[in-house]
Design goal:
This protein has 1071 residues and is an alpha+beta fold. The chain contains 34 helices and 32 strands. 43% of the residues lie in helices and 16% in strands.
Amino acid sequence: MKQRFSSLDVKVIAHELSSSLVSLRLSNIYDLSSKILLFKFAKPDNKKQLLIDSGFRCHLTEFTRTTAASPSIFVQKLRKILKTRRVTAVSQIGTDRIIEFQFSDGLYRIYLEFFAGGNVILTDNELKILTLLRHVPEGEGQEPQRPGLAYSLENRQNYGGVPPLTKDRLRDALQTIIEKNAASATTAKKIKKKPGDELRKGLAITINELPPILLDHAMRATSFDSTVQPAAVRDDEALFDHLLRSLEAGRSLVSEITSSDMCKGYIFAKTRPGAEQPPDESAQSPNQPRKGLLYDDFHPFLPRQLAEDPAYTVLEFDSFGKTVDEFFSSIEGQKLESRLTEKEAAARRKLEAAKADQEKRIEGLKAVQTLNVRKASAIEANVERVQEAMDAVNGLIAQGMDWENIGKLIDRERRLNNPVATIISLPLKLHENTITVLLGEAEEEEDDEAYETDSSEDSDSGFGGSVTSSMKNQDKRLVVDINLGISPYGNAREYYEERKVAAVKEQKTKQQSEIALKSASQKIEAELRKGLKQEKPVLQPIRRQMWFEKFVWFLSTDGYLVLGGKDAQQNELLYRRYLKKGDIYVHADLHGAASIIIKNNPSTPDAPIPPSTLSQAGSLAVCSSSAWDSKASMSAWWVTTDQVSKAAPAGEFLPTGSFMVRGKKNFLPASQLVMGFALMFKISEESKAKHVKHRLYDTPVRAEAISEAPAAATSTELTDTTTTKEDEIPAESDSEGSVAEEDDSKPRENPLQSSGGNGGETEHLDTIEEAEPSEQMDQLTISEEAADSQTPESNQDPEQDEQAVEDDAATEADTIPASDVNQTSSSTPEPSTQHKKKGQQPKRGQRAKAKKIAAKYKDQDEEDRAAIEALIGSAAGRQRAEAEAKAKAEREAALEAARERRRAQHQRQQRETAEHEEVRKLMLDEGIETLDPDEVANLSPLDALVGTPLPGDEILEVVALCAPYSALGRCKYKVKLQPGTQKKGKAVKEILEGWKAASNKKGVIDEKSLDKERMWPREVELIKAMKPEDSINTVPMKSLKVMSSGGASGSGGGGGGQGKGKGGGKGGKKK
């Protein structure tokens, strides 16, 4: 069986990885074992997993594997250096079995070695080793490898390029082969080679760009005899040219294999011993594991020597990476499955041994009872003989005869055919006051005469017949111990008493055995679960998430897709990409409430949304808010698509995840705080026809119903009838709270414009509300004069300005700027210094002193004054003051530039928002979709998701979701959730463990998959493959309590019903 890559395999896999991984970022690295690593690469909507088995293989995998609990030191170093870096190149080093990964344009490199013990080496751009998986000491033909040394590439095979295939090179290669064979023939040690194999093996070493399997294929394809001796090829020009053509054909095959991005792969398998017949290749998918086959070899081309072998079954794959993944994953999965099966079989053997031990004890007690009854019956049937034997032995004892002499006497009398002595068995147990007698049972005594007659007729002599009959009688007789102190009937009564004691003991043993078996079964199951947890689970294919699974989602009872954002970024994404014409926006005026949208049928966007769907979407909005933790039942509201926009009034700015809602809000009834965790199953296309959906996606809506949509949608809802004019409230979903709590009728002040009366501002808001988007964009243009009038004065604290600049650089979206607080102070001019000096009289003596100074320095010019000041040091203070003034001016200029950038950023964002809103309005009016082709193709995979599969359905995947409990009526596996103190991670884990434990109960699984109320084998297989960490993010609440479970005969994950998380049961004490 092939276990590691050849040089051709390395070349092909490096070529495929180059087209698959380049431009992807390394998201994380994991340990699978001491020599197996898992690299995860990702970019939006494209995730890859690279499996590296040091020294053996390297390929992308489609199967999930269990990672180590904590990373090794080597993986920690790799994470520290390479995490989030982009792959820029993947290539093979020459024709050697080494793959090079370059990150960040060669800033860091990883070398994977697939020869000898293998290695994974991380270097910098100068090939200096930073860390490596295995330290290599210096040896013959091997340079040392350890951190700090340089990784050498010059001595790698064909590192400078593959030399051209010429006649001189081939002739030199043949000469080298001949000399090496001659040298090996003269040495004492003989190398075992197949006859006629010298040429092929020698060429694989000298023409090293072609592996041996490819050389053999090329020789067979060109009809070249590979058994020819190298000397004959060198001497024969025709054979030489023929061999050269074969090698050129092999090199052209390599070029052909790597000509496309993906190369085909072939697996060669043998039939498994014990299989009845080879599987039908046409009936099986090419990318599914084959049952009844043992994988033996794989290649990126179809070798003739293997294709022509009838013992092999050839399996073809679309890419070589899938071929390698299928080959090794199948072998790995078989090993894991065999280990798990062995553990389960060992547990069953232990349980069966315990049952057999208890049954053996009970059978022993039953046998004792039967034997005692037979002994008592035999004594009663032979009372006279027993009495005679007792009298004879008691008489001899009464005469004072020695016990040994009594035994000798009985033995002598038995030889003389004394009837009394023949029933006594030696040795005697006179020290226990008992003797052993041989008694026939009652029904056998009646047949004694028949035995004697048959023996006389079948034997030639009477002696032989008597011996045969006596042996038969002796074999049939019972060995019975007789107490010499009591009568024969007393001995029979004692045997009956022993039988009663054994019967009572049997009943007690049965009762205790049931308890013991139950205890042993529980203990063995606990040991099995512990052992299975330590073992790695069976490999399962990686499930590709559907586009809506990145959000909080569920399918309503009417079949509508409901989406909710997990954070502000997802709320923004829902609005910009998925809120289309005819959809409904649902929200709640609560802290932390998510933005919910209900996707309507794209073909009938004006169709009304049923009230039940609106109520369920409102429940999700309320349960995802702070009302869940406070256990307060609140109401949500809904509006149509055209009432939601991102365009804020002039001068205001909406942060990420916040929107403006214009018009009347339709309030829903108060929602119950009851959620549910459930499973849905994805079925095949052929199984969809069995499921009749009540989904509006498939039902046409009449035009008459469209005009009645608002009235029908709001007939059962609580509406605010006291509002006489339209509200204009920003609906915020981020953690900073909602602006909806402010007064609706009071418009917000615009600090970027001059303050006026309230009436003027109201007219401005109405203009924005009624104007076209193009006019709105013109109104959002802000004049430089208005901006300059609102600029803070330069007399602010420079430290505060610097802090404002830092805050402005740290945030991408700024909130609405506050009103200028310095207008009042700046509007009152301060009296100037000159005005103060004019009104102030000089002090006494100052005028005369000034005259003396003027007379003293009247002949001194500016140069002299500067020289004198520099001499006495008085210029330092003036220079310092000038430097401080200059630095202050620079800081003020930087602050002004930062304020200008902030104003420009706000204006740019407002222009972009206005343009987006204008385009969005036009697209909503025209009904144009802006989704990607992949999203459009996968927009409605909802028909493939069912809560309860029907008999005959082909179940492909299982999907976990969290939704209002009222929307999970059709789900087979569901659990009710309410507010509590248990962490959601622990709760989800307990739910899944409960379903897995329920599958081990007797009678729960329907092997035929017909009973919808019981668990099916395929469902159990998918549930056991689920990981809690993959399902935790579907729950939007942080803490909860598991109330009840449903489905699968009422068994589920109700283990968390008490809600005892870490520190649970002590109440929610507020700090």
